Amino acid sequence: MREMATSYGRSPGGYLWAVIEPAAGIALLSALFSLGFRNPAIGTNFAIFYATGLVPFMMFTDLSNKVAMALLFSKPLLNYPSVTFLDALLGRFIVNFLTQIMVSYVVFVGILMMFETRTIPQVSGIALATVMGATLAFGVGTVNAVLFTAFPIWQRVWSILTRPLVLLSGVIFIFDNVPQPYRDYLWWNPLIHVVGKMRDSFYPTYDSSYVSYAYLFGVSAILMLFGLIFLRRYHRDILDF
Hints:
Blueprint: H1 2-8, H2 16-36, H3 46-68, H4 70-73, H5 85-114, H6 123-150, H7 153-161, H8 165-168, H9 182-186, H10 190-200, H11 213-239
Helix pairs in contact: 2-3, 2-5, 3-5, 3-6, 3-10, 5-6, 6-10, 6-11, 10-11
């Protein structure tokens, strides 16, 4: 409840802005690319094509950043013995994960009602892609929760390093259209697998054989493990910096 009040209760509109941001991004991309292209890389509708890339991407960035800032955000509460670092991480993750599910539902349903997209959404596939993105976000956020707190400069470095991600994660193109050897390099970006699974869940003819669940969940688990180990051992020292 504290997370909900502080994250969305302070600004006019509250949760409305969580929906407006991806919707505006999708509308802008659709308008720009429709001027130069007759059809998107898959299908016939620009809005649903960019939504299947931008929605999971924005979910990852929002969740990972919120989890990464959890210790700094809840630092006063962590002085109470009954409040642990895990409470801070999970509190931020759960509230914002539920928010992103709501945003995804509103955006996708809105596009499907407004346009003839010629897609066949698969709820189970969409749910799996959402879980993939959320798991990766929690892993990245947990590691960054350590680094952001211990090394404040890392927050700025991370912001710079991740700016090209929207271009490197298959949001505005499809993985198959990338020429070799760059396609092999991009495969190592876990977000490629999240976006690929989301697009596969809307386009039945889309070939997502490159998506590796083992790789995505393996990377996420390793990041979580290292982040939680360091937090368990050093979180008190880190908060005293």
